[in-house]
Design brief:
single chain, alpha/beta, Rossmann fold, 2 domains, six-stranded parallel beta sheet, three-stranded parallel beta sheet, 10 helices, 18% strand, globular
């Protein structure tokens, strides 16, 4: 069993990006600039956005954090997005989800210019991905693809089972794994909460990507020997033995599943760091397009 370290892969990606940014600066080019919009004071969202800002500093990007109150109206938020769309200094930006309940997340996503949609959630970005045209790939699926590539995990002709059909992870992941490229060329089964006899399906999987949002959902009796398991979930569980008062777990019951796997990604330290690395890669792509 080998651990798929998202920290290791993301550090390599960030190192490569930092070298490219240095080269851009030497030739007097446009330094990439990533902005993040944070609405309200959700603790997990704040932590995640702060990690993005630190990652920008590490690779030499410019970064802007736009902090807005949870009480902001949908109209005012859309106005803030339009300002970012028109700001030539900013190459890409993300609006951190979830948003307060009075704001329509889909309307916000569609308001972001496809040219700056480095999260890869805009319908134009997703449509291009489906057609295998150059586009910003959704950050988390993009990160998973890069993890598979880094560890040279065989995908051609393999059966890939994706658990979860969200527009952010599950659905785009199923499309990427079926593409005629590497990583890809899998036979893909997309499963979800309404799938019957789920364990029978998952036990056939060579590659399992688990993004169902339920703590320790995938157990050892659902996995065949020698499978590759990618855990996308992240959950805070109270733990009095920890200084923070909690620990992080994923959608996979790691301790019992890991011994059956050829490869497995942990939580934390697996997919999480790769999402941020993918945002940086997408932002660099935005600058290259404009160059």
């Amino acid at each position: 069993m080998k651990i798929i370290s998202g920290i290791e892969v993301s550090d390599k990606i960030k190192s490569d990006i930092a070298l490219e940014v240095e080269a851009i600066k030497l030739r007097g080019g446009k330094v990439p600039h990533l902005a993040a919009v944070l609405v309200g004071n959700d603790g997990a969202s704040q932590t995640y956005v702060n990690a993005k800002v630190k990652a920008c500093e590490k690779v030499g990007f410019g970064s802007t954090l736009v902090e807005l109150p949870a009480t902001i109206s949908e109209t005012d938020l859309l106005n803030e997005i339009e300002k970012l769309n028109n700001n030539k200094e900013i190459d890409g930006f993300i609006v951190q989800l979830p948003l307060p309940k009075h704001i329509n997340e889909q309307k916000v996503t569609e308001a972001i210019s496809p040219l700056k949609d480095v999260d890869g959630f805009h319908p134009v970005s997703l449509g291009k991905m489906v057609l295998n045209l150059p586009s910003f790939l959704p950050a988390t699926p993009y990160g998973i693809v890069e993890m598979l590539r880094h560890y040279n995990i065989s995908t051609e002709g393999k059966h890939c089972v994706v658990i979860g059909r969200s527009n952010i992870v599950g659905s785009p992941m199923s499309i990427l794994m079926a593409r005629n490229t590497y990583p890809g060329n899998c036979t893909v089964t997309l499963t979800h909460s309404k799938t019957q006899n789920l364990a029978e399906i998952t036990k056939q999987a060579d590659i399992l990507i688990v993004a169902i949002g339920k703590p320790e959902f995938l157990t050892a009796n659902m996995v065949k020997e020698g499978a590759t398991v990618i855990d996308v979930g992240i959950h805070r569980i109270e733990d009095a033995t920890k200084k923070s008062g909690f620990r992080l777990i994923g959608d996979v019951k790691f301790d019992e599943v890991a011994p059956k796997c050829a490869f497995i990604s942990p939580v934390p330290g697996g997919v999480g760091p790769m999402t941020i690395a993918s945002l940086l890669k997408n932002t660099l792509l935005a600058v290259r397009r404009d160059a």
